[in-house]
Amino acid sequence: MLILVVEDDARVARFITRGLGEEGYQVDVCTRGDEAAEQGLASPYDLILLDWGLPGQDGLTVLRHWRLRGVQCPVIMLTARAGTDPLVLALDSGADDYVEKPFSFEALLARIRAHLRRRLEHPTSLVHLGDTILDLRRRTLTRSGTMVELSSREFALLDLLLRHRGDVVSRTRILDRVWGVAHDPSSNVVEVYIRYLRVKLDGESPAVASLIETVRGRGYRLRTDDEVVASQGPGPDDET
Q1: pLDDT digit string (tens) for 214-225?
Q2: Burial degree of 189 (CB within 10 A; 0-12, 13-18, 19+)
Q3: Structural domains in the chain?
């Protein structure tokens, strides 16, 4: 799960980022409202924690910008403003939740889990990859009617490729997102897990091109639906 934290207080940002990281979440951080306005559109975040008082642009302005541009992920406002009026204003501006500072991290984490749980229970948690179905909530694959379990690393890798489907994701970015920046860059762990995923997505002896394409010297990409259909060739009704 990828979370964007928009917070200009470095101490608070570190506190939240460290806690979320320990819970297994991937985290991006922005410290300015004007930068966050664009960052929120750059990646398909699962949830955003947004401070109200920010340099550049205030949080409500950023939130309205996101909603007008089609950002639908849950947004939890973090603010020192207390009372009913700020709460109503934030919710009416498109926030899904409102947390007053100072806050308990455990309470914040519970709210995050609740919003993510509702998001994953939505029917769109099922993703079709050719003849394979990925269940984002259960973290399983179903291929030809057979369920295939994914390890946490395999799911994180597939989730990253899925978020950038059709685009090349570099080996360096994969290491950073899935294993963390401290991982040995000379390790072949990315290649090993790509091979694991290919077996689970395509089968031991795939009849068509793998769903995961190797782009030599650049990285890996998950093929689009159109590419998958094209690689399977014409069906019986399409032959002439």
Answers
A1: 999 999 999 887
A2: middle
A3: 2-120 (3.40.50.2300), 124-238 (1.10.10.10)
